[in-house]
Design goal:
Largest sheet: 3 strands, mixed
Number of domains: 1
Number of helices: 8
CATH class: Alpha Beta
Order of helices and strands: HHHEEHEEHHEEHEEH
Structural class: alpha+beta
Shape: globular
Strand content: 15-25%
Strand order of the largest sheet: 3-7-8
Distance between the termini: 67 Å
Mean pLDDT: 85
Length: 199
Amino acid sequence: MGREGHLEDLHNPESNVQQNKKKEPQKEELPPKSEFSEWYNEIIRTAQIRDVRYPVKGLYVWYPFGFSLRNHVFSILRELMNKDHQEALFPLLIPEQEFMKEAEHIKGFEGEVYWVTHGGKDPLDVKLALRPTSETAIYPMFKLWIRSHADLPIRIYQLVNTFRYETKHTRPLIRLREITSFKEAHTAHESWEDAERQV
């Protein structure tokens, strides 16, 4: 549009108003707060943090904006943790026999564990748990790594996804089946006093 077009708009304020109406984004109505679940989900979606419309209950998609917020939080966490811990990464799949060694620790969420039972069409010899928490993946490795007091202390952390078959009402960022922002730190020490100082 050249100068003439702009001059025409000045002489025709109605066409200007019409164009501005077209440009204005339509405001979406939020559900009332009395319908908290719907209201919360819509806030999270409208803010473009997470999209709740993925077709599996309790699994949500990070929008790019939301994911950038998550990454920013992670960068702050890493800065804090890297002062005296080292970042590591342990496998997502945990063999059943290792998982069950911590029966006392996992008591209470046995019913929330996802189990991988097939590789392709073939049944697996050993069921594999999708990590609900990582103690049972980490401590067998600690046992291999620590041969004497000279190997201590060990201070590690990881930022990982965990899975829990959550049967209650799921909600983004609060109650999920795939927790995509799970930070856990694990340490091993030569003495109780050293461990206490760490806390």
